[in-house]
Amino acid sequence: MNQPVRVKTLKIDGRDVSGREDETILEVARQNGIFIPTLCNLEGLTPIGACRLCLVEIKGVSRLLPACVTRVEEGMEVYTQSERLQKYRRMVLELLFSERNHICSVCVVNGHCELQSMAQILGMTHVSVPYRFPRLPVDASHERFVVDHNRCILCTRCVRVCDEIEGAHTWDVMGRGIDSRVITDLNQPWGESETCTSCGKCVNVCPTGALFEKGKPVSERLKKRQFLPYLTMMREERR
Amino acid sequence: MTPEELRKLAESQEEARPEPRHRIKICVAAGCLSAGSDRVREALQNEITQRRLEGECEVKGVGCLGLCTAGPLMLVEPDGVMYQNVTETDAADIVQSLGKKPVERLVCPADMSFFTKQYKIVLENSGVIDPEKIEDYIARDGYTALARVLEDMSPQDVIDEITRSGLRGRGGAGYPTGLKWSTVAKAGGSRKFVICNADEGDPGAFMDRSVLESDPHRVLEGMAIAAYAVGASQGYLYVRAEYPLAVKRLRTAIRQAERLGLLGNNICGTTFSFHVDIRLGAGAFVCGEETALIASIEGKRGQPRPRPPYPAEYGLWGYPTLINNVETFANVAPIIRNGGDWFASIGTEKSKGTKVFALAGRVKNTGLIEVPMGITLREIIFDIGGGIPDGHQFKAVQTGGPSGGCIPEQYLDMPVDYESLAKVGSIMGSGGMIVMDETSCMVDVAKFFMDFCVSESCGKCVPCRVGTAQMYHLLDKITSGQATMDDLALLEELCDMVKYTSLCGLGQTAPNPVLSTLQYFRDEYIAHIVDKQCPAGVCQMRH
Amino acid sequence: MSKKRIATVWLDGCSGCHMSFLDMDERLVEVFQQADLVYSPLVDLKEFPEEVDITLVEGAVSSEEDLHKIRMVRERTKILVAFGDCAVTGNVPSMRNPFGTNAVLQRAYLENVTLHPQVPREVIPALIEKARPVHEVVKVDVFIPGCPPSAETIFLALSDLLADRMPDMAKLTRFGA
User: Fold this and answer.
1) What residue in A sits closest to B477 (Cα-Cα)?
2) For residue B517, what is the domain's CATH number?
3) Domains annotated on chain A, with CATH
4) Chain segment B297-325, per-residue pLDDT in tens
5) Of B90, B111, B132, which marks where a domain is finished?
6) What's the gap in Å between the CA of B454 and the closest CA on chain A?
7) B217 and B156: one domain?
8) What ipTM was assigned to the predicted interfaces of this complex?
9) CA distance to partner chain A, nearest, from residue B263 (Å)
10) CB-CB: which of C94, C132, C175 is closest to A119?
11) Which domain holds residue B491?
């Protein structure tokens, strides 16, 4: 140990909590059983603050800050459940549902989809913005896996796990704004990818039915993610 | 090269040059160039050759002369006559008239308030020097600020001088430059970087392009001084690839400065070394956002990341990085030469110095202008801009591009500074200024900027990626007469949400054009929705 | 106290929500002690009546007829309930939207038909460009997601509405449930 780790004390929703100086608000909240919703975040991958569900209010800070990348500070007063935040979070979900074709009833992960359950947790019963109904492709060229862009929420977990954990960097994002799309290699069919190791990590970290394994009934399409924190922990220790 | 040698070089440049009796300075910046100034220049040269006047007559390409609307522009010396709208066929008459009565039909009155109301610091050399000759820049005190800094100022002295000047970031947000420099200077790290943000992308804005095309050395000198102040030895100029002329002149300028020892290793014979490389942007507006720009230089997808940590602490490749805009760097050398107090004496209490604007839209004189902070919008639009052409009525002025807002007539006498513009719902921005008359539909204007944001959103965060597309859809519904008041309420809700939840400045400010037009021109929205009519007669209603 | 007037309407849906409604079984008796069913595909009435207290709408708005019907229903109803995922989100009927009406008609009536293939122009109402959730066409007061919502969900929601309470649907059901 080179330097002693400093511990910061702070308040989250009025509760006194403490965390290491290198921990984020989200990590400390979870250790203390305080729920902050997330979608793009996944333990074991670099947080990117993209989905905006984990935005929190901090006393004395005019901006809302994403809990997944904001470090704890001494004396911080964090609020995670204000009415304003809840409204914004529901709107984020509504925007996601309106963006592509999320038809839960016929989706391969109906019942164990993070987007679907987040809508229920956050009390979203309908989408108030108009649905866009874009026409999007499904790539089933890989022998074991399928990517269905209709269900993708662009959280880039697949991109990160492939790059950071598997080291293949098969996945990336192409296009801008509303036209963004995850691609394999240089937008070649997944089945023709020369970098894909078929490890299946991307499928397991995908929060929705955008990435799934062929030939399994819906009830068996549970995503297995225990490997992630374990892998990262082992790597840290080796270092 | 030592500072002493630089001074000698400057003097010798002045002397060695055989002073021709007549000199025609023709603008070769992009505006006049696209109006054919290169052809006029050639015609003039031919005319001079034919008349065997090479010895006493020189044609010189210079940077922007400002009044782009009347290009190609040229300045004849020593007669002091300015000509406008010149074509190849005018060449003979112009050469013929040198030293005699000017060609009346081409004269551009230099006493018009377009020229007299301006105050030039950033553009002091624009239209005066040949941007492709370092000697011209040195002859106008170029690089003396750098030499002085290296000779007898400590990095802290430089930062103090910049802080004293009150200079604020000219990219739009107005962050105090001195504070930024001192933060980077204090940051620990084995390496540091200086980046010049030349990814100018607001529709209709071309301030930075003009500076780079007209006076590239000024920016390099500013960067070198900044590098000395913060302790960096490598700089990057991030320029849009759509600015080929600026890039070409920058490359020339860097080569020239390196040859004279004003960039590179051991600058001016000191231990200070600073290298500048150019990085071309692929045309993404979001790469003007500093963290996206850094990602782009690193070879990654140009997407912003949450701040903090700020680049001053964790920037390019993780090292402390100073990022300033072109115009900010262009102010540095004059501040060092004339002192921070001199700069602070210009402008208002909180906004010092001048600001360059690209004046466009429904005004008589469109072009590039530099005005002292605190000047009123009315002076800019009606004195410098010459008012609204064809007897039309002023309606609003848009500042800050897609991040800014529309300011109505009642605020015309407001001083132009960071705080005042923000107070009325717009921003200073990088300097785009678009004037609109009663033939402009404000809902349509808001839709135009939203369309821009939709195509320029990087797609990383949900509010900006989907929110802008939904807002555009609603604006389209309104402008086509298909919307209800519920749609308007939804639009306002989305504005609020996108503004407060987006990851970077692009999304956070994307609702501004809608919010400001709703604030001042709500009745136009209502007319589209309730009466199914566009008061300005711009929008086509679908029934 | 007078009994509440309930109606149910079937737009573009599979009738699964109505089946789930019938799955309330003996609790239907409980419901109809407090209310009368004044209009429904389950009962034989041709005209949608005036002054209905609660109308459950199953299905997305897909055709000219749906459009006409839902506007009339809205006018004659106090509390309009989007009943099931098709009404709430567009669901399966909306899966045609990315392809356009023409492509769908071609596939259904021409490409997959061997005997006298032709697109019907009479009797069957014309499709509108996109199948829409009900609230994109008229104002909706209560949303009951689910494909279909369970009988339990429907019963609890109706019980609340009959007692003049707004049900908290997120606790009871979700999209695709």
Assistant:
1) A130
2) 1.20.1440.230
3) 7-81 (3.10.20.740), 107-216 (3.30.70.20)
4) 999 999 999 999 999 999 999 999 999 99
5) B111
6) 6
7) yes
8) 0.95
9) 37
10) C175
11) 442-531
